[in-house]
Amino acid sequence: MKDFDDREERVGKLKGLGCARKRVEDARFTQGKGNYVDDVKLPGMLFGDFVRSPYAHARIKSIDATAALELPGVIAVLTAEDLKPLNLHWMPTLAGDKQMVLADGKVLFQGQEVAFVVAEDRYIAADAIELVEVDYEDLPVIVDPFEALTTDVVLREDLDTSEPGAHGPRKHHNHIFLWEEGDKTATEQAIESSEVVAEEMVYYHRTHPCPLETCGCVASMDKVNGKLTLWGTFQAPHVVRTVASLLSGIAEHDIRVISPDIGGGFGNKVGVYPGYVCAIVASIVTGKPVKWIEDRMDNLMATAFARDYWMKGRISATKEGKITGLHCHVTADHGAFDACADPTKFPAGFFHICTGSYDIPVAYVGVDGVYTNKAPGGVAYRCSFRVTEAAYFIERMIEVLAIELNMDAAELRRINFIRADQFPYHSALGWEYDSGDYHTAWDKALAAVDYEGLRKEQAERVEAFKRGETRTLLGIGLTHFTEIVGAGPVKNCDILGMGMFDSCEIRIHPTGSATARLGTISQGQGHATTFGQILASEIGISSDNITIEEGDTDTAPYGLGTYGSRSTPVAGAAAAMAGRKIRAKAQMIAAYLLEVHDGDLEWDIDRFVVKGAPDRFKTMTEIAYAAYNQAIPGLEPGLEAVSYYDPPNMTYPFGAYICVMEIDVDTGEHKIRQFYALDDCGTRINPMVIEGQVHGGLTEALAIAMGQEIAYDDLGNCKTGTLMDFFLPTAVETPHYTTDHTETPSPHHPIGAKGVGESPNVGGVPAFSNAVHDAFRAFGLRQSHMPHDHWRVWKIAHDLGLHG
Amino acid sequence: MIPSAFEYHRPADVASAVKLLAELGDDARVLAGGHSLIPMMKLRMAELEHLVDLQAVAELKAISVEDGTVSLGAMVTQHDLIDSEELFRAAPILRETALQIADPQVRYMGTIGGNVANGDPGNDMPGLMQCLGATYVLEGPEGRREVAARDFYEAAYMTDRADDEILVQVRFAATTGGYAYEKQKRKIGDYATAAAAVLIEAEGGTVTRASIAMTNVSDTPVWSEAAADALTGTTCDDAALQAAVDAMLADIDPQEDNRGPIEFKRHLAGVILQRAIARAFQRA
After folding, report:
1. Angstroms from A800 CA to nearest CA on chain B
2. CB A208 within 8 A of CB A330
3. E strand residue ranges, A665-749
4. Which of the residues of A are catalytic?
5. Are A181 and A430 in contact (CB under 8 A)?
6. pLDDT one-digit tens code per residue, A546-594
7. B45 and B70 belong to one structural domain
8. Which residues in chain B have Cβ-Cβ distances shorter than 8 Å to A123?
9. How many CA atoms lie within 13 A of A719 on its CB side?
10. Burial, A795: exposed, middle or buried (Cβ in 10 Å; 0-12, 13-18, 19+)?
């Protein structure tokens, strides 16, 4: 018993895997002591700001900066003409397209960067941008992607339609690519020969990640030593360094990129924006540091949006409800430039995870990318590449099929789940799902909410409504989602040619503490807390004694950054593997100290113990000291390790979410009575951090489903450019969430972890949306597009004749 | 999001403020809580040379209830309205309305005077003041004058106030009977999609007097005398409710915006009014 107590105590002291350790970052954040980009202040620093286009499509006839340059304190006004000699007036996008850094002859979306004013401070810059006179000649505006594919209006005059794009032939001057996966013929045959077919257009509207901190940077070119230092809101600092080197011609070792504290990213801070390029150029030209910080309107109108997928689906089944095939065609609105942030070979990201949690024998997906006069982007907003679109699509199609079959949607899911004994499961669209136990999770979720009781209550409510006793309907929103995260295997995932591995470097210090550096960068995920826990369990040093550093390319090993829930699956794995290298060397040191053979030792929490002689051991603290203070034959001094981890596969977290919603038929208002979220993210590193991630992700999902959108009028004016109209929920709008879990480890990840940050956004949106749809199912609703704000929900009721 | 440069003035009394406005002319505006004007300046939709801040004018912060008359200095904040037990006893609808404006941070700054004088159809207090039959006191170079809230609003941001006048006080009779302020908004911090202020006095289950005003369903607040008349003398039965709603609908003119199309807003205005009447009648 004493041994047991001792072991318990030692495990407790480690604060390793499974510990609800408090976030070490929060001490500074909760005291307002974070260090964000806008906190960087350098001597002589200048400030840059953009003149932006008020038009969505217009030719630029002239730009006159005379008055601006006459304003005291204005240093320079850069236009495309100034960037041309440097060949920086256009830049490559992550998606193989190119985009204007500053408007080159025309503008293609409202808010586009036209000129860059550099001034002594941001107040002068704000005055100066008003003084730059731009003469525009407006052109026909195309905001509808379907119209874009038929109109004579050419948006991208710089492109030649006869030349193939980055992803194959272009069939129209506003067409970007057609990307296909799966067996089209077999799918069409399967659907045509099926007993039941459901068809629906599912639109996932355009929205925006809207991190609390907007995008920005400080570029500082030191003309004496030729080094460029760039602080910025970068989710992938190493990639930014490589891109900056390729674009500027400055050698990569002469560029230092630093991502300081980042106030949320959610995909918005993956891409490279004109502000970064202009700040660098301005710093090179002036020899002074130049800061560029967006305001909220700039961020909402011009930086990367998310979604905007029109998904036309056909799903077929037997009369008993066994799905026989799935067909999907997407019209993807990419805006003015294809600046989508996806691995190079996947122009629609991992959208082909759209068979979801179901065993579907045959499927086909085709995605047409289209140019319109809207802001460019197409980032993964708290989801792995286009996975939330895929999850929404299949979870809506399941509901529509349930209506077609006149079947309970929970039962339809159960009939079609991939069974636990089918993993690793090969999907019809080419993925290998690593592990899962969907039936167990589903049954647990249904039991937790008393699903049968809810359905009974709902039926009674419908009857009461019909009798005129209530004007409130009850919706039960079901979702069983399967995520695909952890991009990814270098063999098929890269960003601008950089394989999507990640890295960790560990240094154990003589007194038994450690510093670890990783290629990722936290934007609020709590890496300094959780990576320390992974390492603690691997190397037997308390996480309180391990410092985690990220985001400085001069010190951290190369990595592809943080997005797509890839940090734990990839960098977390690198940390575990580096930890194992440390432990392997530590074992040799311990063997020398204990005068036994390596093989006679076994690892025990924080020490190596001689097998069969529990009193003979060396702790990691002792081993660390020995590594530095004595010569050990055959071993180099020191205790350090580096691991670059190329994951063999993605990981596939999953979950079962149920939303119970009350809807006021007369006002379109909703009230969320209950939200139950079961997540299975494999091995759980820190339950408290997981819960926090789930709460945050569900709140974003609530926003997206119930009101948040980037909307344009027919002239391409962005109607949602401020937080008055762009819905960002506060504590008042946020319901209570009940979290739960099952734990199905990933078989290929070193510690079995799968990633969780994005699951609640992926699963939450269909849960909220399905609840709205479900409330009206009894009255004949099949499909109504998000966001389900008051007037659109009211419109559902109105169109169904529920207002008498 | 940075305003153009301006001169900042902070007079200590109303007379000095009025004098400043007279001297500075069109280029000056009075600043109360700043929650409408400052955002407009940051967006550069309002560019002003001079701001005359009334924060230091102590006389504008007075609240009094005397002989059944409520007087509110223009610089009384929404928070003050909520906080005052005296006001709650005199006109409980004030607290009910103020609690539905924005959030606590805004309510600590936002003032009754700024809210009613700005002429923003989204503001809640103008409709409430019309419902209460309030009087606004304006002070200018020629001295003081009074205007009925029901005559004050001409169009969005256009009011009877002259550029050189300051709205210094709001005055109305304490209420008796039932009251309700019903507001639907998309989220905290938003203006109303539609809102209704209702006062009802009743005797033996019959309405003896009513007053009804609507917010954000026209380019001004809408005091609907016809809607109130439709209730008077009734027991607030379904037919009376419908008649009041129909009368109100004849008086409003909502426009489409991100909150929804006209058809929705008209329907919602009716629903909101019905609910407000029902609640006020229950309290009468």
Report:
1. 14
2. no
3. 670-680, 738-741
4. 235, 382-383, 758
5. yes
6. 999 999 999 999 999 998 889 999 999 999 999 999 999 999 999 999 9
7. no
8. 2, 5
9. 15
10. middle
B175: DSSP letter: P
- In this predicted structure, what is the pLDDT of residue A495? 87
Among B182, B183, B271, B274, pick the best mutation site for testing chain A contact (most A Cβ within 10 A): B271
Q: What does A228-280 look like in DSSP terms, one character per residue?
A: EEEEE--S-HHHHHHHHHHHH---GGGEEEE----S--TTTTSS--HHHHHHH
Asked if residues A644 and A503 have their Cβ atoms less than 8 Å apart, the reply is: yes
- The sheet carrying A640-645 orders its strands as A546-550, A514-518, A502-508, A640-645
B156 and B248 both lie in a single domain: no
- Residue (of A148, A295, A326) closest to A210 by Cα position: A295
Q: What is the pLDDT of residue A2?
A: 63
Task: Name beta bridge partners: A326.
Answer: A315, A363
Q: A729 touching B, CB under 8 A? A: yes
Shared domain for B33 and B86, answered yes or no, is no
Question: For residue B185, which residues of chain A lie inside 8 Å, CB to CB?
Answer: none
- E strand or H helix at A455, and its extent? helix A451-466
Give CA separation, A478 vs A395, A606, A659, A733, B186, in Å.
8, 44, 7, 21, 25
Q: If you search the block for the tokens 């569900």, which residue do you land on?
A: A698
Give the count of domains, chain B. 3
- Specify the CATH number for A37-139+214-262+269-302; select among 3.40.630.30, 3.10.129.10, 3.30.70.3040, 3.90.1170.50: 3.90.1170.50
pLDDT interval class at A192 (50, 70, 90): very high
CA angle, A289 then A290 then A295, to 5°? 150
Give the model confidence (pLDDT) of A437-482 as tens digits: 999 999 999 999 999 999 999 999 999 999 999 999 999 999 999 9
Nearest chain A alpha carbon to B274:
A666
Q: Which residue of B has its CA nearest to A296?
A: B1
Instruction: Judge contact between B16 and B61, C-beta under 8 A.
Output: no
What architecture does CATH give domain A2-34+502-645?
2-Layer Sandwich (3.30)
Inter-chain CB proximity B4 and A711 less than 8 Å: no
Reported ipTM: 0.96
Q: Which among A335, A437, A409 has a CA at the least distance from the CA of A378?
A: A335
H/E stretch holding A63 reads: strand A58-64
Q: Is the pLDDT score of A748 beyond 90?
A: yes
Residues linked to residue A366 through DSSP beta bridges, in sequence order: A180, A329
Is there a single domain that holds both residue B183 and residue B218? yes
- Residue B2 in any domain: the answer is no
Q: Which domain holds residue B36?
A: 7-52
CATH number, domain of B242, equals 3.30.390.50
Cis peptide bond upstream of A787, omega within 30: yes
- B1 is a domain residue: no
Q: Which part of chain A has CATH 3.30.365.10?
A: 2-34+502-645, 395-486+650-799
Where does a domain end: B127, B148, B173? B173
The answer, for B45 touching chain A at a CB cutoff of 8 Å, is: no
Place of tokens 């926003």: A703
* A395-486+650-799 CATH pick, 3.40.50.2300, 3.40.50.300, 3.30.365.10, 3.90.660.10: 3.30.365.10
Mean pLDDT over B62-81 rounds to 98
Residues above pLDDT 90, as percent of chain B? 97
Chain B residue at shortest CA distance from A667? B268
pLDDT tens, B5-31?
Answer: 999 999 999 999 999 999 999 889 999
Closest approach of chain A CAs to the CA of B3, in angstroms? 8
**How do A255-258 and A227-232 pair as beta strands?**
parallel
